[in-house]
Amino acid sequence: MPPTETLSPQWINSALSRTSFAWLALGFLLLLSLGAWQYSAHEIARNNEERFQYRAQKQTEVLVGRMHDYERVLRGSAGLFAASETVSRQEWRAYVTQLQLGQSLPGILGTGFAMMLPKSALSAHEAAIRAEGFPDYRVHPAGERELFSSIIYLEPVSGRNLLAFGYDMYAEPVRREAMDRARDSGEPALSGRVQLIQENGRDVQPGFLIYLPVYRNGRPQDSVEQRRLALVGFVYSPFRAFDLMRSIFGTGGGDLEVEVYDDKVQPENLLYASERGARQARHQIDLQPVIAGHRWTVRFRSSAQFEADTGSPLPMMILLGGLAFGGFLFSVLYLNARHRQGMEAAAAELARRRDEYLTLVENVPGTVFRSGLEAPWHVQHISRGIEVLTGEPPARFLSGELSLGGLIVAEDRAEVAAAVAAAIAGRRSYDIAYRINSPAGGVQWVSERGRAWYDEAGKAQWLDGVIVDITEQKSAEEHLRAASLYARSLIEASLDPLLAIGADGTIMDANSASGRVVGVPRETLIGSEFRRYFTAPASAAGFYRQVFELGYVIDYPLAIRQSSGEQIDILFSAIIFRDESGEVAGAVAAGRDVTRLRRAQLELEETNREIRALRQMTDLLQAAPSLEEAYTVIRNSMDTLFPHSAGACFMREDDSEQLRRTVFWGEAQPPSISIDVGDCWALRTARTYAAPAGPSLVPRCPHSGDESTACLCIPLHLHEQSLGVIYLGASAAESSGLHHERRLRLANMAADSISLALANLRLRDSLRAQSLSDPLTGLFNRRFMEETQARELSRLSRISRPMAVAMVDVDRFKDFNDAFGHEAGDLVLQKIAGVMLAFRRGMDVACRYGGEEFVLILPEISVDAARERFEEFRRAIAALALEFEGQALPGITVSIGVAFFPQQGTSSAELIRAADRALYAAKHAGRNRVVLADEAQATPVAGT
């Protein structure tokens, strides 16, 4: 609206007809009243606050002025000392009395002088004061200090002040801080809160003091150090805080309540309070004057009298008046608006009822009609929806040119007519779908719902109904039906189980694969309990409960036991689905048959176990020191590798054609202890040979037992050399497992490891035997003799048993070799070795020491028994009949020297030397004899 245009009557009437205008007016007046109330209250509070702060400032100025007056008194007192070299006690009393401080500056407790004393001057000082007529004088409190102070003048000298005479103020930290500050600055210094020494226990008050330094006349005072050196003492005034503050602020009852704190506002710093209890005041301010270099905090609060005097009813009167006027105006406007609204509502109701029928008809989806009762159903009224449906305007139907029956496809007319007639006869509504001819030349589907209208006599007069286009709905139903068939085809095409489960665990739907897995028809599954088909029903119930709790489950393991007895392992995954209202309708579960996977996993675990056992067997066989320990490893390892098979290891002895059973395992022993090489088919063919259980055309080895046992024979060979055979047997129930390709491969790998290990052990034993024996005689060599002798000495020393060591030498063997040749000499040595091998008993050891020398070791034998046996051996050698290349050889003899443990020594070297000396003694004595070491001469004579 332009600014110059006035409000139109129509706009005013519209506004007055609305209750919101009344509320708006009420809100405006309330805001106006609140604003006026707040403004007036604020202005009054601001004026009161300014008045309060002014009063507080004035009181603070009075306090500061009074304290400055006390400072001036002290400056005058210091001037007295500055005007004279000494000030006597009488002069001080006269000076203070003349000031009349009780009348001019009330609140001061006294004015005094404290002298500073070094520790060295303390005794002289006390004596001097006592000499003045104060026999009980002493500086107190007592204690060891480098610097003392003493109050020697204090006026008036009466009452409480008598307690301060001789008091060392410098000994107390708070007073000392103020005294040091005054000394260093040369200015008055106010102390912190203290309890004065004048307090006698009655009416105790906080106190403080003001100090002003007194320096020696004529001494420089330009620096802190100079002032410290020139210090004589302090003039000071003590104050009882309550007495002083009452003289300044009065006794209360005024506009202000006062609290004075030493520095910060804390209970322990309180110097004075005009009221006993703290009150929540309307006004409060903290001022912090600095007096004589020390800060006080003065807290002022408005008193109850001040707040009562400054209160005003004006703001409340403004608020109440505005509220009353706003309420009255609101009532008038609100009642007027309600009256206008009632009148407008009545007029609108009349207009609504006038247009109700038309709006109802036109707003109904589809085509609303009223027609005759008989086909072709000419209309009496029809809505504009017919033009959208057929492309024809309503006028053509109302004129009778077109009818509803003429739209219906000929094939559907009879069905429609029958449905309408049945509904009229039964005094009920009808609902039927049929086809009509489309204006575009095609066919449309419509749904017609209607009912006949009856007069008071119950006679039908016309039909009222509505026709709705459902072509898209029909198309959607067809698509949905096709999609449903497609989805069912996909579900049925799955080779894995797919099920729909209700919240109660009932199977709602399932595909054919589910029936095949469970082993029952699909129709039997639907409607039954999901959990009943599983080996663990409780776990199955937990599966679908978990689905409905969490909304989904992934890879939940369950097992089905089919009627054949086979167990099927399945991993189920499921997710809930909802209906149109969003409520959980059930869960879709998909299963995956993992039976083969589980079996493969178990087989892999078994293979890993076998590989570990095979590796362990190989490691143990390589570490075995002997064939006996190797056979023990083979028995334990093969029992682990083939836990359900009995077996044995047959080994070839040297180059013979016999195999001897060296070790067996399992519950049943193999029937044979030894076998011929030619009897084993594995050794004949040089490859693994398998014979099944039961009658078969495959020939069996003689050592394989009866036909009830399946067996394997695995040859042990290395570098085309046959070492033996491994035999494995299993019962008929286990024979398929024994002949499994994996088991065959494991058996061959085990045989290869065993072949290699046993061949290495045999080679090691052969090499060891060659390294410890003499190739010519077959006796142990010198190295073996030394090892054996050391071992036997250790053993015999532990059990305290004797041992005999004999050195044997062939007499005149060099001459024999020269006469008959070395080959004949070798024959002699071999014959002697044969006698020595026959001579051995028990743990006796025979060795070739070198050349024609031999050593015999006889453990645990006495001296007499040893002599007898060695004599027997000597005679056996002398009795040998020797022949070489058809020629008889002369007889030979031996000389023997014998030493004994522990008589001739405790070490191998000592015994050999002793036996050697005895041997030389035997040679020297004529040969062909036995000489004991203790019978030998000290120095043997060489001879052969």
From TrEMBL:
Domain GGDEF: 801-935
Spans through the membrane: 21-39, 314-335
Domain PAS: 483-527
One example of a Gene Ontology biological process annotation: cell adhesion involved in single-species biofilm formation
Domain called PAC: residue spans: 430-482, 554-606
Annotated CHASE domain residues: 151-262
The protein's Enzyme Commission number: 2.7.7.65
One GO cellular component term noted in the UniProt record for this chain: plasma membrane
Entry's localization field: Membrane
Primary localization: membrane
Reaction(s) catalysed (UniProt annotation): 2 GTP = 3',3'-c-di-GMP + 2 diphosphate
Positions in coiled-coil regions: 597-624
GO molecular function: diguanylate cyclase activity
First-level EC class: transferase
Sorted UniProt keywords: Coiled coil, Membrane, Transmembrane, Transmembrane helix
Alphabetical list of PANTHER family matching this protein: DIGUANYLATE CYCLASE DGCM-RELATED, REGULATORY COMPONENTS OF SENSORY TRANSDUCTION SYSTEM
Classification via NCBIfam families: GGDEF, sensory_box
Protein name per UniProt: diguanylate cyclase
Organism: Rhodocyclus tenuis
Lineage: Bacteria, Pseudomonadati, Pseudomonadota, Betaproteobacteria, Rhodocyclales
